[in-house]
Amino acid sequence: MADQGGSNHGIARTSRTRTEEQRQKDLERIKDYRALEDQVRAHAAKSDYSPDVFALTSKLLRLNPEYYTVWNVRRRCLISGLLSKPSPGSSPSKALPTSSPTATTTTSSAVSSSSLSTETPPALESQTTGKSGTTAEEGQQKQQDQQNDQQILQKELHFTIPLLLESPKCYWIWSYRLWILKQVIERLPVPVARKIWEEELGLTSKMLLRDQRNFHAWGYRRHVVEQLESPELEGKSLVESEFEFTTKKIEQNLSNFSAWHSRSKLIPRLLDERNADDEARKAFFEEELGKIGEAINVGPDDQSLWYYHQFLMLNLVNFVGHPTITPAFTQEERVTYLRREIEGIQELLEDYDDAKLIYEALFDYTLYLCQLQERKPNEQEVKDLKGWLGSLKKLDPMRSGRWADLERDLGLRVTMEV
Amino acid sequence: MAMGSIGDTLWDVVICGTGLQQSLLALSLSRSSKNILHIDPNDYYGGAEAAFSLQETESWVDRLATEDKGLFRSASITKPDVAGLSFPRAYSLALAPQLIHARSELLSQLVSSRAYRQVEFLAVGSFYIFKTPLDPEQQPSLVRIPSTREDVFSTTAISAKAKRGLMKFLKFVLDYDSPDQRDVWKYFADKSLMDFLQEHFKMDAELKTYIITLTLSLDGRISTEDGLFIIHRHLTSMGHFGPGFAALYPKWGGISEIAQVACRAGAVGGAVYMLGAGIKSMATAADEIELELTSGDKVKTKLLVRGDDSVGDEPIISRLVAVVGSPLKSLFEPTIEGAPTPCVAVVALPAGSLTTSGEANTYPVYVFAHSSGTGECPNGQTSALTITTSDILIVLSSIKPFCIIHNMLGAKANWKSIGVIYLSTMATSNSKEILSRALESFLSAVDHNQVPQCLYQLYYEQAAGVKQSRLDGLTLDLPGPSLSLSMDDSLLQHVREAWKKVVGDTVDDAEYMVFTDREPVDDDDYE
């Protein structure tokens, strides 16, 4: 169902008028907020990023997580004091100047790893990867540093959670989280980092549970999965579990563009990793057809379902130079499957005679069939195409221009029965 | 106000009885400046919608034995000689275990009046149909009734064509009240929904059963108009308060909890409450009534509101309430990810699915299974149960009434109750037996392997009350309690009319049941 939003368990909010008492309270709150904001800005102006300022940012961000400048102040507090410094041998002062005003603005922009990596001080990067020449003392110090950093970074992740629950689509919170997670990869030992990133995957699942249409969360999830699969985290492929995840999402809500889309994107790699032979690929294809068929059977008006069905049909028709589920299908097999689908869809018309997407699909797929067999539509097909086009004109008069174009392109002439 | 002085006030209204309707009236008046005296001849709240401990159940049954002409009759308790029952106060058996659909008007009123904050609402989970297998050697099963598109998609129990039919029906119902769709069914409005489904949708028997079950129709013959209303309410309630459920159930005894919360609100608003006080006699003057209460007090009031507990002319139902020590976990699984764990499951045994004395049941039996999450029984713990093969054979082939079977196993088991089962059906000459059989069949369908154990049974019959309010001078009688298994919002209008009588034109109708919180409350507290 649609996003429940708010904190009221979906119980309808009835509008409240503020009493004078509540208005006074609000004025107090505004005053406190402004004071807090002034304090933080004053400290930042002096380049004061001490732990006290850090505490102030906590307060301020709880009140207003959209205040991206304050997130930057917080980052600076971490880099310049709370997180461990790079060890002697590389100048710590190198770190700060690279965090120039331009770099910090890129940090607060869209969630993409490339823009984030520009602001990571090179000194720190070399520190965590270089292991040669460290003495026992340095080794111990490093371990302590890592433990300290782990605590700090996990606390930071924890800090953002209640903020995310309240504002699940606030870019700055997600961006900050990603920055922290990047620090996790750079500063912490791989098993620890991995575990934290796995928890992150769990978090995206929860966010997608709350709002399945949060495209933001889907994109974020893909990024998390990518990291988990990367060599930095000694990752292995998560394609099976991600595929299973799309299945679950679809079962919860059939109209899930993002889930079906993700699914289609995962299939090539899925089949490769399974080392699927032609037999297995055929079985997989049939299973997907079955699944989408069941879905369309109950949701013929749902665009996302037809898009996926079309994806499967294009698999039959557009296989040259494209990753395809069933590369070994013969021409005959392709034709058979396409025909079968067209017949199956025609059956739907028995009960759903006013679903325009059905007519569109029949129209398109008949043309696919002709394309596949490199021929023009035969007499019966022309009759059918005209019929379907006629229905489309009736059901979707807004797109009459489109139907007219199709008519012209195919040399069909349909007379509308009034 | 001291008790002794209740005779000194000219009350604006005396409300007699703390059943749901009278209690809602008290709630509606809780912010008015009216003087309200709210009495109840019973020594408990809730009236016909009360919830009882085991002791209270026994007192109630004893009392009914002496006055068998009221709404409740033919009550009896069966306590098999088995161990496992907890102490009596650990139970809260509801006389009105009604579901409240998410879109019901009652909930809107509880929200707008803020009284909802006092009630803990639990989710009602899936609705199931009990399916007798074609092969008598096979075990019966419970089939979930699909009521969302995703349910229909996932179920393997219906053919593709039938699914299309069902989807068309669901789509129709969602829009049934629009002018276009009205034309489709208005001819059938008073005719049975079954007939409409047959005629217009050509539905097969199985699908028809699913649909009728969603209406919880006791005689299976609900009218098209009423049926479509209820199904529409069910479908639009689905997901309304969260994923995976369409109805709620108040913890600690169902409707009785609503009544108690409403009375509490009344008390906070200044109403005076007296349990154990009924009306002994009354004398009506021009613009006031003088009441002599059974407590001896004499009070004067401008208006008397009572519940009408005379018998109406509609059905009588049979009910069996069974405390069962049985693992029913599979019934209380959340339906989808993110859904709350339900505490109530609904199972329908359609007409013809049970046989007693060689005859199949004419009317459906509805089973409301409550887990201990409802607070109506203690949390269950089961110890290991060893059953020898010979015991199992005896159980499966036995035709003896359910509870006697379990005497044989009583010594081995040490169950604590973990469920309260409410079974309802139309009262007939053998409805008591039908309910027994239904309980047995239901429990065996839930879990074929474990042998369930019944620890306590309450049986009674309840007649329908009067459906209309009646105003006779200064006495207003609210209609009797509803037999409907889901909350029937039509009774709310009578409460509203009573409210209007009390407040007159001093209050705007739009303010009915609309209150602000007494103390500013941060909504975030209710996360």
Automatic annotation (TrEMBL), chain A:
Gene3D superfamilies: Protein prenylyltransferase. GO terms for biological process: prenylation. Keywords: Prenyltransferase, Repeat, Transferase. It catalyses: geranylgeranyl diphosphate + L-cysteinyl-[protein] = S-geranylgeranyl-L-cysteinyl-[protein] + diphosphate. Its EC number is 2.5.1.60. Residues 125-138 have a biased composition (Polar residues). It is an enzyme of class 2 (transferase). GO terms for cellular component: Rab-protein geranylgeranyltransferase complex. GO terms for molecular function: Rab geranylgeranyltransferase activity. It holds the Pfam family PPTA. Residues 1-27, 84-149 are annotated as: Disordered. The keyword Aminoacyl-tRNA synthetase does not apply. Residues 84-124 have a biased composition (Low complexity). InterPro entries: Prenyl_trans_a. The keyword Transferase applies. Residues 17-27 have a biased composition (Basic and acidic residues). PANTHER family: GERANYLGERANYL TRANSFERASE TYPE-2 SUBUNIT ALPHA (PTHR11129:SF2), PROTEIN FARNESYLTRANSFERASE ALPHA SUBUNIT/RAB GERANYLGERANYL TRANSFERASE ALPHA SUBUNIT (PTHR11129). Belongs to the protein prenyltransferase subunit alpha family. Catalyzes the transfer of a geranyl-geranyl moiety from geranyl-geranyl pyrophosphate to cysteines occuring in specific C-terminal amino acid sequences. This is Geranylgeranyl transferase type-2 subunit alpha. It comes from Neurospora tetraspora.
TrEMBL record, chain B:
It comes from the Eukaryota. SUPFAM superfamilies: FAD/NAD(P)-binding domain. Pfam families: GDI. GO terms for biological process: small GTPase-mediated signal transduction; vesicle-mediated transport. GO terms for molecular function: GDP-dissociation inhibitor activity. InterPro entries: FAD/NAD-bd_sf (IPR036188), GDP_dissociation_inhibitor (IPR018203), Mrs6 (IPR017230). GO terms for cellular component: cytosol; nucleus; Rab-protein geranylgeranyltransferase complex. Belongs to the Rab GDI family. This is Rab proteins geranylgeranyltransferase. It comes from Neurospora tetraspora.
